[in-house]
Amino acid sequence: MAARTDDTLPLDARAAGAITLLFGPSTERLCHLTPDHLQLGSKHTHLRLGRHPVLLPPRLAGLLQQLAEEPRPGSRALFAQAAPGPRLLFPGLDPGKPISTHAMTQKLNRHGIAVRAAHNSALAALAADLPSPILADLTGMHRHTAIRWVAYARRDWAEYLAARAEDQQEGRR
User: Is the pTM here over 0.90, yes or no?
Assistant: First the structure.
């Protein structure tokens, strides 16, 4: 958890790690984010991962705004400006191409953010609180995948309540 607020981490690792920990997008979707996915408002910033934008916590919004506005260091910046296509929040070594999913996963893992665990934890937390259509729209996942996540994370207390009621009845006898 400390990795999300660690100012010694590179800006791109902090931003990518925070998005992964909060919303659990696939690494592929994460790598292809552009400044166009940000919706800047006077008070709030939103990020569009699926069909509908999600409200960002102020600290993450600041990181993403900084990342979107930051000139790229080194000679790659000159090539990136000339590259066709949208500017990427997480550019790769090839101009105009995003960082590879493998490179992003390695970078986050190297900085203490276990991508698979972060992805699964974030989706489980969202699936526990959201119906599957909203989860699918929010994250951009297929609706069948969202249904499986919601079923996996479903809070079914029926067995617990039945066992508790049985224990209480036995205690009264």
Answer: no
